[in-house]
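Predict structure. Chain length: 201.
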Amino acid sequence: MTKALIVVDVQPTFCEGGELGVAGGNAVAERIARYVAEHRSEYAYIATTQDWHVDPGTHWSDQPDFVDTWPVHGKAGTPNAQLHPAIAALRIEHHFKKGQYSPSYSGFEGYEDNTDRIPTRAQAVDDARNAMTLAGALDAAEVTRIDVVGLAESHCVKETALDAKRLGYEVHVIERLTEPVSEELGVAARRQMREAGVILD
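Prediction complete.
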């Protein structure tokens, strides 16, 4: 079995003190960093995903409902949109940016961009057409199992795991390496993932 590890949206914007901080986010970042250091050799492919919003339309709102609309977060080029320092220190090679000009939750909606540039709308359209997608990268690496970790379990981790399952992978979410926005939303997310066949470790 060829395994990949996807580190979803471990950015300061989603940790304590960030625009959409998740309680326990910084601790999750540190635990993921230790896990990668200890288990890196088990994975044929490791990648990160990042919210990298430039103008995501109604995804941002001055009066967010925290369901479909949110405060400004993951703003491309800002310090809080960078990888959490604990994750950046791992020097992971592959980075998938998502949501530049649209709402985005799943890492499979992004494309590989290992720079910090802020694309224009036209550039983002061209990049999405021509750059490596996460699905394409996993296929090229002949991956059969995906482990998903990161933030937040109730949103982007869940959506990434569900998309991976739809694509036919064996999918595991490592529970100690993620946190939900709230316990209520975490319970609902875990139920949805289990029902879809995602394995919660």
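Summary: The chain has a mean pLDDT of 97.
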